[in-house]
TrEMBL record:
Cell compartments where the protein resides: Cytoplasm
Gene Ontology CC, one term: cytoplasm
Residues given in the record as Zn(2+) binding sites: 105, 121, 128
Record-stated family: In the C-terminal section; belongs to the PRA-PH family.
Cofactor annotation remark: Binds 1 zinc ion per subunit.
Keyword tags: Amino-acid biosynthesis, Cytoplasm, Histidine biosynthesis, Hydrolase, Magnesium, Metal-binding, Zinc
GO molecular function annotation: magnesium ion binding; phosphoribosyl-AMP cyclohydrolase activity; phosphoribosyl-ATP diphosphatase activity; zinc ion binding
InterPro entries: PRA-CH, PRib_AMP_CycHydrolase_dom, PRib_AMP_CycHydrolase_sf
Protein name: Phosphoribosyl-AMP cyclohydrolase
Predominant localisation class: cytoplasm
């Protein structure tokens, strides 16, 4: 039994601030109970290519998507527009294989280290972060790797 097991979920992440790598943490379900999903039951998840560090995308997960991702090691998000689970690559084939997952210090944001197959962005680009901003102008920083019409089978 961990010293964290007796804490109310709302106190867990505060207590983890002073934890060390040698501490026994609570069971995964207790930790997920303490995750600070927003009022819609969602958690922002940032996907980063595990070997290059490239930030690929940000999407949302509900608890079910997070649990499925941890269980299957294939990344699953929650689609706000479709109001259902969205298994990355189910229509495009551009899947994300989970390498690791980490919560931030507040338990309200998730970082996913993934192995991305092809482009991560629905525009056909490797990353969704292709519009560069400065104080004077914006610029497109990459070309699509695949035409989105081809990627999603549209004519």
């Amino acid at each position: 039994m961990s010293r964290f097991d007796q804490l109310p979920p709302g106190d867990l992440f505060k207590a983890l601030e002073v934890a060390s790598p040698s501490d026994d943490l609570p069971q995964i379900n207790a930790l997920l109970d303490a995750v600070r999903f927003n009022e819609g039951g969602l958690l922002p998840a940032i996907a980063q290519q595990f070997d290059s560090g490239e930030v690929l995308m940000m999407a949302w997960m509900n608890r079910e998507a997070l649990e499925e991702t941890l269980t299957t090691q294939r990344v699953c998000y929650y689609s706000r527009s479709r109001q259902k689970l969205w298994r990355k690559g189910e229509t495009s084939g551009q899947q994300q294989q989970l390498k690791s997952a980490a919560l931030d210090c507040d338990g309200d944001t998730l970082l996913l280290q993934v192995d991305q197959t092809g482009p991560a962005c629905h525009t056909g680009r490797r990353s969704c972060f292709y519009v560069s901003l400065s104080n004077e102008h914006a610029a497109i920083t990459s070309e699509p790797l695949i035409d989105p019409a081809t990627l999603y089978g549209k004519k």
